[in-house]
Amino acid sequence: MNIEILSKEEALKIIREAKDSYIEETNARCYAGMCYHLNQSLIKNGYELVYYFEIKEYIPNFNPAFFDINLFDGDLYWWHLEDTESRIKAFDKLIKYYEDL
Fold first, then answer.
1. Distance of CA 87 to the CA centre of its chain
2. Residue 1 lies in a domain
3. pLDDT (tens digit, 9 = 90+) per residue, 30-64?
């Protein structure tokens, strides 16, 4: 698999689509993490299926340190599944980062 860092424009498109999908699903009380929605957006835009550790190859700032998160070994999600506010803020932080490049 050949993964390259996304351009600013492509990263913004992927992140915005993922955020919209996340909000739509959480409004319907379907909860998933950011990884799921970023993966779906990447696939929708012609990229290969990736896992969490590969998302950062496309979007380097998609990592716990960028969001000031301390994880414990074995943590699957960065926040509790129903913590939609933290995830929306994280999507917004990623969007702002790419807008400001």
1. 9
2. no
3. 888 999 999 999 999 999 877 777 899 999 999 99
Mean pLDDT of 55-84: 86
Q: How far is CA 44 from CA 48, 96, 97, in A?
A: 9, 22, 23
- On whether residue 88 sits in a domain, the answer given is yes
* Domain span including residue 14: 8-99
Three-state secondary structure along 11-75? HHHHHHHHHHHHHHHHHCCCCCCHHHHHHHHHHHCCCCCCCHHHHHHHCCCCCCCCCCCCCCCCC
Q: Assess if residue 74 is contained within a domain.
A: yes
Q: Is residue 3 part of a domain?
A: no
Between CA 30 and CA 55 the distance in angstroms is 22
- Rounded to whole angstroms, the Cα distance separating 33 from 84 reads 9
Tell me how many domains the chain contains: 1
Helix H or strand E encompassing 87: helix 84-99
